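ugh ok so i messed up the first submission bc i forgot one of the chains. this is the corrected input, ALL of the components this time, i swear. 554 residues overall. if the numbers dont match what u have on ur side tell me asap before i send this to the collaborators (the ones from the other lab, u know who)
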Amino acid sequence: MSSIKAIVKKDLKDTLRSRAVYVSLGTAVLLLVIWSGDLRDMAEGLAEKGVPSSQAAAALKPMINSSAVMLSFALTILFGMYINGYAVTMEKMKRSLESLLCTPVGLRGIWLGKTLAVFAPSAILGVAITFLGLFGMNAAVIEPKLGAFIMPDRAPLLAALVGVPAVAFPLMLLVTGVQLILSNIRWVNIVFLALIFTVGFGLSQSLKLNSGSWSLVGVLFGIAALLALLSAFLARFLTPERVVLSSKG
Amino acid sequence: MEAIRLEQVSKGLGKRDILRDVSFAVKSGDVFGYLGPNGAGKTTTIRVILGLFAPDSGRVEVLGQDICKHPEVKRRIGFVLEADGLYDNLTARENLAYYGEIYGVANIADRIDEVLEAVGLLDRADDRVGKYSKGMRQRLALARAVLHDPELLILDEPTAGLDPTGQMEIRELILDLARRGKTVFLSSHNLDEVERICSRIAIIHKGEIKLCGEVERLKEAGRRELEIRLGSPLPEEAKAALQGLPYLKEWRYEGENLLLSLDGEHDPSEVLSLLLQKGAAIEEVRRRELSLEEIYAGIVGKEAG
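and heres the new structure output, hopefully the right one now
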């Protein structure tokens, strides 16, 4: 366990000193600006029409609910992509993973350590920035225009805070595992994008049906279980030999 | 006790056989040189020893254990691989702290200072490794290898790409480790380096061990070649006598000189007396000393040719 902790600590330190985190933070801010533009337009439209604040709040609620879940998912995955690229791909390119495999940690420990190193900052940043964005938009636009402070319902709140990280962890476990054994980075990216779009599409469809429903939480945990099963299947193919042979050089 | 034992180890990658029935043993406390040209199978052997590759057949024992079944034995092994595996964004101290934590090294801060001082990098301990020269990186990789005070060190081309001064520094460090009783398995292209620091060697070529033994004994075997300067051509009777000698492996002319290659522990005076009896005009006799380079070229060059 202490070895896994060492991997997580080292990877976090290494990643924080790379440009990856700062580029991903910039991209996250851009995403928030685009999203807040849509929300502001809608809030201003409702204010101009003189819609009472209770009705305006009800009209904005589905958008806030969806935003909480989708933003949290998109931002967590965005940070995950950048950090993962640094923590795993770079280590394979520089063949430092081969050295790590010669230590007593073991491949499963490395897999778990690397995944946690990608997941922990991504989930924290993803959820934190989502809620900072929601508070910020309420404070800057919604409350001054409509006189109401609109936060997500309990189900999407739980989905954003717990459900999204529950999906993100096995997703990153799967992607890290694929990265460990595939040498062609294009294939890794294809797998990563295919998984993100499939999960993202499933999520957006269930949000369209009813953004405040508890079934959303169920859908997220269902996806998480499926991804965990896929990761368990992938574990059968994970050997030090495959990792070494798929590394550069 | 043997630190490493490989018994008829074979390993194929894809359709290629990389190792074929490789067998050798490294005794505890030995500095063992592993020689071979590029693509001979040196790195694959190291990967098998370190448990990165499972052999297709044969047995591998490291410090008395099967490393694939008992990975905990890795705690007793230090290594420097072909790619140093250091993290450019971290300082030397942070790189060592990372591995120290993985190996569970006690009093890690003091130990880091100790090994950095041993490799002459204490004054650069807080610089990022990305700023290091190749020589400094190799020294740091060696510091990482000894951080947890392992019994066995596996070094894959530790002086590759270094200038002569850098090579000398690394050699000194390896010799110092050997003096402190560590077993060193050194894979190298550098024959001079191996000759200077290794007590035993194995030569691998095209995945097969071609020669294995103590350096001095191998050179001793080479000394069983006699170089004889003749005053006149060798009489036919003497030639016929040479043909019938069971302990004479080979005889040939090299320029004006006659070269005799003797088998086993045979006393050379026996063959010289015979030649004199058969009328050979021997003017000068000297034992021919083979360097490791000549032994190596004799194996690898002969096969390549």
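quick check: Residues 39 and 63 of chain A are 8 Å apart (CA to CA). that seems consistent at least. The two ends of chain A are 31 Å apart (CA to CA).
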